[in-house]
Automatic annotation (TrEMBL):
<protein>
    <submittedName>
        <fullName>ABC transporter permease</fullName>
    </submittedName>
</protein>
<feature type="transmembrane region" description="Helical">
    <location>
        <begin position="45"/>
        <end position="72"/>
    </location>
</feature>
<dbReference type="Pfam" id="PF00528">
    <property type="entry name" value="BPD_transp_1"/>
</dbReference>
<feature type="transmembrane region" description="Helical">
    <location>
        <begin position="294"/>
        <end position="313"/>
    </location>
</feature>
<feature type="region of interest" description="Disordered">
    <location>
        <begin position="1"/>
        <end position="32"/>
    </location>
</feature>
<keyword id="KW-0813">Transport</keyword>
<feature type="domain" description="ABC transmembrane type-1">
    <location>
        <begin position="105"/>
        <end position="315"/>
    </location>
</feature>
<feature type="transmembrane region" description="Helical">
    <location>
        <begin position="234"/>
        <end position="252"/>
    </location>
</feature>
<comment type="similarity">
    <text>Belongs to the binding-protein-dependent transport system permease family.</text>
</comment>
<dbReference type="InterPro" id="IPR035906">
    <property type="entry name" value="MetI-like_sf"/>
</dbReference>
<feature type="transmembrane region" description="Helical">
    <location>
        <begin position="145"/>
        <end position="165"/>
    </location>
</feature>
<keyword id="KW-1133">Transmembrane helix</keyword>
<keyword id="KW-1003">Cell membrane</keyword>
<feature type="transmembrane region" description="Helical">
    <location>
        <begin position="111"/>
        <end position="133"/>
    </location>
</feature>
<keyword id="KW-0812">Transmembrane</keyword>
<dbReference type="InterPro" id="IPR050809">
    <property type="entry name" value="UgpAE/MalFG_permease"/>
</dbReference>
<dbReference type="InterPro" id="IPR000515">
    <property type="entry name" value="MetI-like"/>
</dbReference>
Amino acid sequence: MTSTIEQAGGSPAPSADPPDRPPGAPPGREPRSVRWRRALRAQRTLLLLAVPGIAYFLVFHYAALFGNVIAFKDFVPFQGLWESPWVGLDNFQRMFEDAAFWQAAWNTLSIAVLQLVFFFPLPLALALLLHSLARGGVRKIIQSVVYLPHFLSWVIVVALFQQLLGPTGMFGGNVAFVTDVLTNPDAFKPLMVVQIIWKDCGWGTIIFLAALSQVNQDLYESAALDGAGPRRRFWHVTLPAIRPIVILLLIMRLGDILTVGFEQILLQRDAVGPEAGEVLDTFVYYQGVLGADWGYSAAAGLFKGVVGALLVYSANKIAHRLGEQGVYK
């Protein structure tokens, strides 16, 4: 038919291959370069919106990693990064022999474990309550109330606790057992956990509520028809559906376990003293920024980063053995 049309003077049938197909390319499939150009053109608006965020991470997270070289130097700002003398592992040896460093590490680990045990499950529990009990306008009001403290700075949060629990506060001057809460070293770590629960528990429910909204409602109806009560539906339907999100957040929290809140603790450290209130972040701040011992503080910060990376790697491997995807495959 095509040859008859061509002989009659008609136009030839259009080719199935695009005009920019290079010679020798397999038929029926575009080259990878063509597909990339087409995808870039289609997503150029989203890519432009992502440029500021990508630039932020490249400059302040990835490029900043090269600054860890000062952990192996006796860094002097006036001499510059490359002119400062190398000291090898001397900063790390000094750090491991410093009792103040190990005290800060112990305080950091104690607060982190308390936050992991008492704070991490609460957003999930609150999300389950909001998802199962509250509906419509009531749910929106509760969510707005529990989200609000997240947007307050730690300066305001600490000031509120001082007005409530301080010696001249609402409860501090009237209730005997709370007179020394803010200055009691033994109460410092539980107080840090209570503050972060009040501030960020509601905000932490967002991811769990999003995961719960994706659970197929037909599964609940089928389980109810089979005679499963609320507990069995939670155990066999809800929990397996949100388990990947819970494991993912747990792994991310383990990677950040040695970061327990710099601003929160810095504002209250002096009230209880460094023995109870010093953590690794404030240790780095006082040694490096205030003490100008840059190499030593960089060694402590690098130690914290390496421990966090090892925890993420180990927890991700355990998640793979349990059949979950984790942070990466």
